[in-house]
Amino acid sequence: MRAHRYGLPLAAVAAVAAVGVATLLLRPRGGLIEAAAVEPTAYFSAEQLERAREYNGPQRLIALGGMALSGATLALLALRPPRMLRSLSERLAARPLVGGVAIGAGIVVVLAAVTLPLGAVANERAVDVGLSTQSFGAWLADQGKSAAVAGVLAGAGGLVAVALVRRFPRHWWVPAGAVVLAASVALTYAAPLVIDPLFNRFDRLPEGELRAGVLELAERADVEVGEVYRVDASRRTTASNAYVGGLGETKRVVLYDNLIEDLPPDQVRSVVAHELAHVSYDDVPRGLLWLAVVALPSMLLVQRLTERFDRRRAGTAAADARARGTPAVLPALALSIALVSFGVQIAGNWLSRQVEARADAFALELTDDPAAFVGLQRSLAAENVSEPDPPQLLHDLFGTHPTTVERIGIGLGFARER
C-alpha cells in the first residue's frame, strides 16, 4: 500500500531528475556569444512593432485556447467517457488489438475536429495579414491530410500500447520507453522520404551560384551536408525559413523558396551557415540522445498517471482490473502522455534555445558578416510577422529559438568582440 501510495510522486521526481540531467549534460558548453542589449525600436518601426503585436497577441490566445480545449477533451474522454465511447470499448474488448487501432486513431480525429474551428480562425487571420497564401479549401484539405497521417500513427501507437499493457501489466513502461525512442528514430529517418512529400514538393538545389555557395560554406565548415533541397513553401505561406531534417542517408538541409527568392544573397548565406551548424554539431542525433535519457522515466510517470486516471474512471479496483489491457485504457494513456509531454517539452525548449544560439554564433564565425546576420533577423521578423520581443513567460515556456532582439544582440556581440 505504501509503495502504491508514493508511486506517482516518486515517478514524477524520477522524470524531473532525468530531464534535468539530460538537459544539463547536452547543453552547449561553448561556442556561445554574449548578446548585446537591444531596443526593438532601434531596428523596427513603430508600425512594424504594432502590426506584429496586433497579429501575434490573438494568435497566441487562439493557440493557448486550442491547447486548453484539447486537454479538456482528453480529460473528458479519460475521466467521464461518453456512453458511445464506453459502448465501443466494451464491444472491442474481445478484439483488443483491433480496438487499440480504432480507439487510438479515433482520439486523434476527435481532437482534430474539436480544435478545427480555432484553427480556421487562426488561418483566416494569417490570410488577412498576408502571411498565409492558402484558400480555405486548400487549408481544410491540408488539415484533413494531417489528421489522416496522425490517425495512422496514433492507430499504430494504440495497437502497440494495448499489446504492451496486456503483455507487461505492471511494467509496460519499460518496453514503452524503448518503443518511443525507436519510433522517434524511425520517424526522423523516414519523414523526409515518406511524410514530408505528402505536403510539399522538394527539389534538389540546381547547379548554380547558390548551390556552389552552399557547398563552399560546407567545405569551409568541414561539414558533410548531405543534400540541399528547395521546398515550395510559397504554396502555403509568404514566410521564410530553413531547417535540417533526416538522419544518416536522409540527412538534408531544406531552404524555403521564399527565402531564396525574397532575401539578398548575403542573408541567404547566413541562413545556410546557421543550418550547417546543426549538421556540424550533430544536433539532430543529440536531440535523439536527449530523448533516450528522458524516455524511460517519462514513461514511468505516464504509467503511474494512467493508472491513477483509470482508477478514477473505473471507480472500483475490480473494474480497473477488467479494463486493464483493453482499449478502454487508451484515453487515460493519451491524457497522461499529453501532460507529461507538456512538462518535458518546456525543458526541451530551453535546450533548443541554447542550441539555436550556438548555431547563430557558428554562422557568424563562418561568414564573418554580422551586418548580414542582423539584416537577416530584421527580414525574417518582417516577413514572418513575428514579434521581436514577445512576452517573457510565454517565450520561456514555448520558445524554441532566441527572440529576434536576442539574435540581433548576438550579432552585435560578435561585431563588438571582433
Features:
single chain; 418 residues; mainly alpha; 4-stranded mixed beta sheet; 16 helices; 4 strands; 72% helix
Short description:
The chain has 418 residues and is mainly alpha-helical.
How far apart the termini lie comes to: 64 Å
**Rg from Cα:** 23 Å
Strand content: under 5%
Shape: globular
How large is the count of helical segments?
16
- Which bin fits the share of residues in helices? over 70%
Order of helices and strands: HHHHHHHEHEEEHHHHHHHH
Describe what you observe in this structure:
This protein has helices at residues 2-5, 7-26, 46-79, 83-92, 96-128, 136-167, 173-194, 209-221, 257-262, 265-280, 283-314, 317-323, 330-367, 370-383, 392-398, 404-417; strands spanning 202-204, 227-231, 242-245, 252-256. It is mainly alpha-helical and 418 residues long. It is built from 16 helices and 4 strands. It starts with a helix and ends with a helix. Helix 10 (265-280) crosses helix 13 (330-367), helix 10 (265-280) crosses helix 14 (370-383) and helix 11 packs antiparallel against helix 13. The longest helix has 38 residues, at 330-367. A 4-stranded mixed β-sheet has the order 1-2-4-3. It has a domain at 33-170 and 313-417.
